[in-house]
Amino acid sequence: PEVTQSAAKNAKKAAEKQSKKRPDPDGLAEIARGMEAMSVKDFATAKACFERAEVMCANSSVKGEGKVKAPKEKKETPTAAAPTAKQDALDATHLPKPGSAGHVTAKMKENLPPGATNYAINSVQSMAEHLRETGGRWRTRFPPEPNGYLHIGHAKAMYFDFGVARKHGGETYLRFDDTNPAAEKQEYIDSIIDSVSWLGHEPVKTTYSSDYFDQLYEMAVNLIENGKAYVCFQSKEEVFKSRKVIQSFQQMCAEGNLPRYETPLPEGAESPYRNASVEENLQLFEKMKNREFKEGECCLRMKGDLRSDIPSMWDLAAYRIKYETHPHSGDKWCIYPTYDYTHCLVDSLENITHSLCTLEFETRQAPNGSYYWLLDALDVYKPVTWEFARCNITYNVMSKRKLNTLVTKGIVNGWDDPRLLTLEGLRRRGYTPTAINSFCAGLGVTRNDNTQPLSRLEGAIRDELKDSASRYFAVLEPLKVNITNHPGGDLMCEAPVHPSFAERGMRNINLTPTIFIEQSDFKTADVDGYYGLAPGKTVRLQFGYNITCTGMKQNDDGSVAEIDVTIDMESRAAKPPKGILHWATPAFVKGEVRLYDKLFLVEIPGKAEGTVATEDTAATADTPAVDDEDEDGEETDKVDWLSQINPDSLIIHKEALLEPGLMEFASKPLATNVQLQRLGFFTFDKDSTAEHAVLNRTVMLKESTAKAALK
Questions:
Q1: N or C: which end of the chain has fewer CB within 10 A?
Q2: What is the dihedral of CA 11, 15, 16, 19, to 10 degrees?
Q3: DSSP-derived secondary structure for 352-382
Q4: Please, is 218 exposed, middle or buried when counting C-beta atoms within 10 Å of its C-beta (0-12, 13-18, 19+)?
Q5: Residue 323 has what pLDDT?
Q6: How far apart are CA 35 and CA 570, in angstroms?
Q7: Could you give the C-alpha distances from 78 to 212, 456, 459, 623, in angstroms and in order?
Q8: If pLDDT is split at 50, 70 and 90, which confidence band does 282 have?
């Protein structure tokens, strides 16, 4: 009797039920064959495949994933891996299981343009080989280019790449996409490895795209032999002109409702070298490899689809000549594969199940885009691809090109400058892995590129440090205060290490006849709304007594040299005045305090002043050039972004007075976070020593806490 679709579906359901318990690779391959048969309505073959799969899985020794338990959170380890309390970003990712129908057809798109092909369908053989290699486990990769330090956007990518695999009991590769030796350094590689580890991520394997250069070269030869690649001698200007011709062709077809695949291409759309013979292209490619051409004289281009509405299909470069020493492969090669050629092929070679990227790669990774076109042209395994929004943050730049400009021009002090949102910069500023991972967890999943307010990132670290950081005094710009009626002897004031946790104890500060307050906490004349000290005015010394200003001495330039006050020894039990000041004594230690603020004066650097961050402020690169030196995907700046630098983004106080208890942390840079009361949260910089403490401000307190520095 004829097998019905319903019968095939029932067999499929039974097979999938067994595969969840025991995901046998051969059984999963049979399910894939069944899905392929279903797609062509061969229900008899599909039912037979599913029934064989059910038996294979039921009798297999392979065990399913089960429920993956999240690691227990340690109370006193702020450097633990990804947080477990907030998992909303990961919970919002709905990806197909390895070997499922959504994996066999790795990417679907409704209403493909007429004439377009879905290249994202895996063959039965390639899927079976893939599942044998992985055992049906999830495998993701984090693939940074070693051409700079990682930034907060990479932290979000890591959160997804490592988090998705961890959630499903899988594994993640750390892969360096090292295809451009001109921009890559061992310094960047070392920094990336350190940053990945610092955030708590553990790759099962570290690989390099250059590990596969031999295979990638053989694949390029195969591509030429199949008539799908050619050596092109067009200049960049000529390529640009041809792409403009193609854009005009696309516009003409759209406006005139013309079928693109039946309308002749205009003159100038094709490269004049596009239809050279296979033999000639093989010879030219061999000459490229043998250093017989100048750098930039020619490149190998993929013969894509010039009628496609996806610009990445318009014959992107696969190989270019670069006479540079590669940091990993040395001088073996002078031709290097491009990102667009390498990325998808190494995903396939490493049997990545899910390739997660940011949205600027969405058109490339469409089912009719260049990612799947190349995999299909070489008849190799095709991973699932999934895109998420980039992480842009106000008052900052994320482009590696712009970050490199800031570093090389000396506008900031290196890639780890605390004003940058590089991971090493954030670490040096005092951010913790848990705060960064918590920030990433809370971003959720959106299909729109968005720009997050800087305050959201600051809130993540402030929320953590408000409980963990011990409290201390420091005075940044000391103004001498003489207590003229001091009773003499020791006058000890008890201050809590943390006001919310009595068990952490108290610290004792001796209120001496001479103390110091902030210069900004004194005015020569009182004004409405000001809570600081002024002649004839009373304030409270924090954890101490009320003092009243009785006089002052001024320098020749009119600045205040010192002030005289009287102390009210009966005031401690009384309700304090509105002004409460922190203070220092001669026993305090001199040190350096660096106050960091926003690096830019405007929310979106490069945009006109007054531009407000919105969910689609960040641009995507939907029209890639033939080569791919810059993968940042930026819009052209409307104004000079360097003119929008904040001149007060760093203020250094080299003669600050620090509470002596701080010195026990001074020789352990980046290991301790503290709160300097009324000033903010701080950590000890890498320049800090036991003899000379250097503190970096991580983030300011909320205004209500510090009373806006007493106005």
A1: N
A2: 180
A3: -SEEEEEGGGTTTTSTTSHHHHHHHHTT---
A4: exposed
A5: 95
A6: 86
A7: 38, 19, 16, 43
A8: very high
- Comparing 119-133, 547-561, 636-650, the range with the smallest average pLDDT is 636-650
389 pLDDT band (50/70/90 cuts)? Answer: confident
pLDDT in tens, 472-496: 999 999 999 999 999 999 999 999 9
> What pLDDT, on the 0 to 100 scale, is given for residue 7?
84
CB contact set of 343 (below 8 Å; sequence gap of 6+)? 143, 177, 209, 371
Residue count of the chain:
711
Instruction: Please answer whether residues 398 and 153 qualify as being in contact, where contact means their C-beta atoms are separated by less than 8 angstroms.
Output: yes
How many angstroms separate the CA atoms of 266 and 261, rounded?
A: 13
Classify the C-alpha dihedral 37-43-48-50 as positive or negative: positive
Q: For residues 90 and 437, is the Cβ–Cβ distance under 8 A?
A: no
Question: 476: which 2 tokens?
Answer: 């940044």
Q: Tell me how far apart the terminal alpha carbons of the chain are, to the nearest angstrom.
A: 88
Greater pLDDT, 155 or 56: 155
- pLDDT higher than 50, residue 277: yes
Q: Is the model's pLDDT at 448 over the cut of 80?
A: no
SS (H, E, C) 160-174: HHHHHHHHCCCEEEE
CA 363, distance to chain mean position in Å, is: 21
Pairing of strands 680-684, 335-337: unpaired
Percent of the chain with pLDDT over 90: 74
Task: Say what the pLDDT of residue 629 is.
Answer: 42
- DSSP string of 157-222? HHHHHHHHHHHTT-EEEEEE----TTT--HHHHHHHHHHHHHTT---SEEEEGGGGHHHHHHHHHH
Helix residue ranges per DSSP H, 549-673: none
DSSP 8-state class, residue 312: G
Encoded tokens for 246: 């193609």
Q: How far is CA 592 from CA 410, 474, 582, 599, 670, in A?
A: 21, 10, 18, 20, 15
Q: How far apart are CA 95 and CA 103, in angstroms?
A: 9
Determine the pLDDT at residue 671. 94
Find the helix packing angle between 152-167 and 433-441, rounded to 10°: 70
User: Helical H runs in 210-268?
Assistant: 213-225, 236-256
Q: What is the mean pLDDT of residues 291-318?
A: 96
- Active-site residues, by number, are 145, 390, 400
Three-class secondary structure of residue 91 per DSSP:
helix
DSSP β-bridge partners for residue 591: 656
User: What is the reported pTM?
Assistant: 0.84
Tens digit of each residue's pLDDT (9 = 90 or more) over 568-601: 999 998 899 999 999 999 999 999 999 999 999 9
- Note whether 260 and 284 are within 8 A (CB): no
**Selection from 406, 400, 430 nearest residue 418 by Cα:** 430
Pairing of strands 514-518, 538-541: unpaired
**Which residue from 141, 142, 49, 174 is spatially nearest to 99, judged by alpha carbons?**
49
Residues ≥6 apart with Cβ < 8 Å to 567: 483, 485, 486, 545, 546, 547
What is the SS3 string spanning 19-64?
A: HHHCCCHHHHHHHHHHHHHHHCCCHHHHHHHHHHHHHHHHCCCCCC
Tell me if 113 sits within 8 A of 107, measured CB to CB.
Answer: no
pLDDT of 83 strictly over 60: no
**Residue 634 confidence class, pLDDT cut points 50, 70, 90:** low
Question: Which residues are CB-neighbours of 277 under 8 A, at least 6 positions away?
Answer: none
Q: How far apart are CA 129 and CA 382, in angstroms?
A: 12
Tokens of 534: 């002024």
- What are the pLDDT digits (tens) for 324-373? 999 888 999 999 999 999 999 999 999 999 999 988 889 999 999 999 99
Give the model's pLDDT for residue 551. Answer: 96
